[in-house]
Amino acid sequence: MGKKHLITCSVIFVLVIISRLNIFSTTAANPAKQVRYVAPELVNTQPLVEPVVENHPDFNFANEAVPTDIAKVDTKLKKSLKKHRYKNLQTNILHIKADKMFPVIEPILKEYGIPEDFKYVPLVESGLREGTSPKGARGAWQFMPGTARSYGLKVGHGVDERLNLRKSTIAACKYIKDLYNEFNSWTLAAAAYNNGSVKLERAINKQNEDNYFRMTLNHETGSYIYKLIAMKAIIKHPKKYGYKNYYSYLHKTPEWPLLAFNN
């Protein structure tokens, strides 16, 4: 009996050990109960997908929201932002021009009650080029001769006030204000600045639509507001769009021709 009792006790003891081992192995196999340490420097903090553009504070024009929930609008905005990255432009000229022009333009816009976002219009209008356009537009605001004269600028007989940044900005403010009074929308006013009020009015009547982002317009005007928004984004957040060393250029170009506009 003693021998059998000893064997029985031994078996019970072994079973107890096995059962406890099973408990520990089950606990270890349960991911919910594991605590795993990962060194912070090994954690991938980069997003797995490209961030969406919705709700970005800069994706509006003159506080008029861009409806990025519309697929066409979202696509056009992303395309415009991509085109204006340093990787594609390979130049700091836009930031240099902004640095020279904005101190002159901003107070004039404010004086005339024009939203500050219109300061990006000259960067889109004149862009990377200088001089006269093939159609005859000239200066930072790219005024045609007739429009310039109708808003008080002298053009002709050896004088061209379209090249005077202060005077041409005043003329542009008067023109933009007239366009806003006509269309009751800063977005449409900007579109009309690019395409002309007559053509835009015709498109609105034909399409029975006065929301710029829902309208079908010619390529230049149809992409115009997106260019303004992209310009605003790269000027306000240069590093985000690849412009890393542009400040060093600002102090190396004292002879930049835009200084002549201040006269």
Topology:
Blueprint: H1 2-29, E1 60-61, E2 64-65, H2 71-83, H3 86-89, H4 93-111, H5 121-126, H6 145-150, E3 155-156, E4 159-160, H7 165-183, H8 186-195, H9 197-207, H10 219-222, H11 224-236, H12 246-250
Antiparallel strand pairs: 1-2, 3-4
Give the termini separation: 119 Å
Strand content: under 5%
What's the total count of β strands? 4
Segments where pLDDT lies below 50 for 5+ residues? Answer: 21-55, 254-263
Average pLDDT, all residues? 80
Number of domains: 2
List the secondary-structure elements in sequence, H or E: HEEHHHHHEEHHHHHH
Structural class, from secondary structure content? Answer: mainly alpha
Largest sheet: 2 strands, antiparallel
Count up the helices: 12
Taking all Cα atoms into account, the compactness measure Rg is 32 Å
The side-by-side strand order for the widest beta sheet comes to 1-2
Provide keyphrases for this structure.
globular, 263 residues, two-stranded antiparallel sheet, Lysozyme, 12 helices, 3% strand, mainly alpha, disordered C terminus, Lytic transglycosylase domain-containing protein, Lysozyme-like_dom_sf, single chain, 2 domains, Transglycosylase_SLT_dom_1
Structural overview:
By secondary structure, this protein is mostly helical. The protein folds into 2 domains: 2-36; 60-262, Orthogonal Bundle (Lysozyme), CATH 1.10.530.10. It has 12 helices and 4 strands. The protein has helices spanning 2-29, 71-83, 86-89, 93-111, 121-126, 145-150, 165-183, 186-195, 197-207, 219-222, 224-236, 246-250; strands at residues 60-61, 64-65, 155-156, 159-160. It has a two-stranded antiparallel ribbon. β3 (155-156) and β4 form a beta hairpin. α2 (71-83) packs across α11 (224-236), α4 packs across α7 and α7 crosses α8 (186-195). It is globular, with a radius of gyration of 32 Å.
